[in-house]
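cron nightly-structures :: item 1 of 1
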Amino acid sequence: MPVHALTPYDIEMSEFIKNLPKAELHRHLELCVRPETIKELAPEVGISVSTEEDFKRHFLIEEPMNDLGSVLQKFLDTQKLLFNPEILERVAFEACEDAYLKENLRVVEFRYAPTFVAQNHDMTFSEIHKAIVKGVERAEKMYPMAVGLLCIIQRILPVAEAEAVTNFAIENRDSFLGLDLADNEVGFDSKPFASFFKAAKDAGLKITVHSGEANVPKAPEYVRDAIDYLGADRIGHGVQVYKSPEMIQYLIDKDVALELCPTSNWLTNAIPNRDEHPFRQLLSKGVPLSLNTDDPGIFGIDLNGECEFVMKRLGVTEEELKKVFQMAVDYSFIPKEKIAKVWPAESSRG
């Protein structure tokens, strides 16, 4: 392919993006492993990465897959690498360090599923969480950033597992910001989890729910259920609401923010054409939202690249992008006094 020289516009945009303080609300810690770390650890679990093709086959998703379920299956090779507390601490620290040094992220919420990390590994939820918290706290001491953690319930697991995760999140509410419901939404109704989320909210935890991601007719209805039955303060993805003027207005009226992830939505076939992602459309309609990477390690992306995409391909302006990151700060679950130490004082909320 011919190599095109960078235009002055490209250079100016790149500098703007690099220097822009950023905030992200939807990033899965388990899928933030550095490529160098993956290549170091993979042989220890019997996965050959002697060639770049091997690495990509096991650990990267660069083209749209059949559906969300196919993508979730691909995550399992990365999960195998998280086999002891020392590695978890390292991964948590490196995820924070890379976010700050490479993406200028000042405010970031990571989420993880204790059941996913513990799968096939001899670690308790407590051992997992202590290691992750240790890595995060080490990074916060080194870099001017505010980091928070969200606890995920995997909706595809038995109800007993959901109850155990909820209780664990409540017991550790001093180091968890909130509770999330994730995994494939199609065929797994959110309403049976309502009692767990009520208990979490009553205990002071915030609520975000993966909903309205898959490209199915009922997707906007799923988002409404997440708000009405689970008490969602934010919606993970929610991209399909662009098809429903009623749900767009409902989000505005309820002041519930979307955590939009453009590249992820394309790779999971939630959006068939990346250049037609409704990010700008929803922003223009006044829907509160944030820009996110979702699983940057396995997708081979970062937030700088997402910024470039929405500016160059969707027409988002510099001022709009600044507003988006201010909204992320305003809708973050991280305590405001903690954010104030690393972020300019400003607010987009009325």
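cron nightly-structures :: done
The chain has one domain: 17-333.
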